[in-house]
Design goal:
disordered N terminus, two-stranded antiparallel ribbon, alpha+beta, about 130 residues, 3-stranded antiparallel sheet, extended, 5 helices
Length: about 130
């Protein structure tokens, strides 16, 4: 078994998992930084069951495994440990080839039930100020 070694600042070596992802996100998306479709972080995606012909590779396979049920773009990005923009490029590729469907997040109505509770917002703000 070969141990991959990288060096931290200060001369300490990193071994395997501690070294982080060895393939740069830019490479995963083939240098693309803009997806072909619009995705919000709350957009829900789900696998259609179709096997993609053009979208092959471990990153695409990992995304498809995560999409057995509806899952948000943010959750997928967190699970595959890639920036959201790179995740969106992968998802757009899978939607384009028919392997995924995407649904925009539901809009919040402007009715009385959705009115903002000022006291709650102030409590959250005060809590954040105390922690920071």
């Amino acid at each position: 078994m070969t141990v991959r070694r990288r060096w931290r600042q200060g001369g300490e070596p990193w071994y395997d998992d501690a070294a982080g992802r060895l393939v740069r996100p830019y490479t995963v998306s083939n240098g693309r930084t803009r997806p072909t479709a619009h995705f919000d972080l709350l957009t829900m995606v789900m696998a259609t069951g179709r096997r993609p012909v053009s979208c092959q590779g471990p990153d695409y396979a990992q995304v498809l495994r995560l999409c057995g049920g509806p899952v948000s773009v943010a959750e997928i990005a967190a699970h595959i440990r890639l920036p959201a923009v790179v995740t969106k490029v992968l998802l757009a590729d899978l939607v384009d080839c028919g392997a995924l469907t995407a649904r925009a997040p539901a809009a919040v109505s402007a009715g009385p039930a959705s009115r903002t509770d000022r006291a709650l917002l102030e409590a959250v703000l005060n809590g954040l100020r105390k922690r920071l």
